[in-house]
Amino acid sequence: MPVDKIRSEAEAEELLLLLQKFYGQPVMPLGRFCKAITTWMQCIVQNNTDPELSKTLLHGSDYYTFLNEISTDIEKSNLLGRLLFAREPLRTKKCPIHKGHWNGQAMFFEPCPEKCGGTGWLPERAEDQGFTGVLIREAREVDGRLQYRDPKTKEWIDGGKLDGDWDEDDGDEV
Asked: What pTM does this model have?
């Protein structure tokens, strides 16, 4: 059933319902799913920090203090970008240069000759190009700070202080 153009939100929702029926599970745009996860995390934190809500049994009391860190890791995860947005399979071959460790230098400044994209892992298929969620055309380091050129305005933008282990493993191994 080819669809040339979806003409309305209602029509898009009808198509989602058809996909849900086909797959036998909910189908939704990734942005909607991510918003739901973020809302869930916020509710867990609120349930454990709001004096009125925290008077009874606390759901998530063992882990709610870590949700902000987990949220940050999810948002910056190159792995999740590749799996969800680029629809790449999990990379299983270590880059012979970076040996499974993230490398910011290879991601932003000097492309890896093995084409790992700075992830430390080689693409499984030749057509896999990765997805970082960040479009940096040009970047540089100035006085220990990352700067990148805005692709639209061409102005240099401060990206923050580099923490000394800029090209080392940041915990997102794959």
From this structure: 0.66
